[in-house]
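ok so i was messing around last nite and threw this chain in just to see what happens. nothing serious, just curious
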Amino acid sequence: MGYTFAHLFRVLGIKDVPTTYKNTQSNGTIKCMHQTMATLLISWSPLTPQDVLHLVDGGIATTVYLMRSTMSTILKANPGALLFSYEMVLNIPLIAEWQNITHNREALVNNALLKSNQQCINHDYFAEQQVMKYIKTIKGNLAVKTFRPLESVCGHANGNITIQLRLGVTEQINICYTIPYKDCLV
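result:
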């Protein structure tokens, strides 16, 4: 980010949000915003060079409006209506039921956790057992699953095991990221 752009952020009080491949939520929002803006700009055709400035300003305003007024599947409402307590499309007051919204989000998280836990292998790990560690590598746009044989040092009551990466270097990881070595050979 350039100095002038960063200075403008500081003056306007806008805080920087990290956008890396590990922060998928902010990446998804930005990607959606860019696609919406691109679709709008492609569909509008300027007549004169002065129209380009109006086109960009109108495109940004329309994109922000669309992002605020688009229905969220998790919240069961649009973000602008929840923020301003007013429906953005129908122009009527809105009373948000925050307890229901919280309950629905908790249910989604619990279902995701149950689904994730079903993928775990039911196995009791013990010291000096060979395990295979799941390593996610990214090659281009593809996520590749690879496994690497390691020796477990000890198991813990919280669902984690300590594995020895190399002599004198250990790592504590959740058992969902490992499988017993014997299962890999079958």
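not much to say yet. The radius of gyration is 25 Å.
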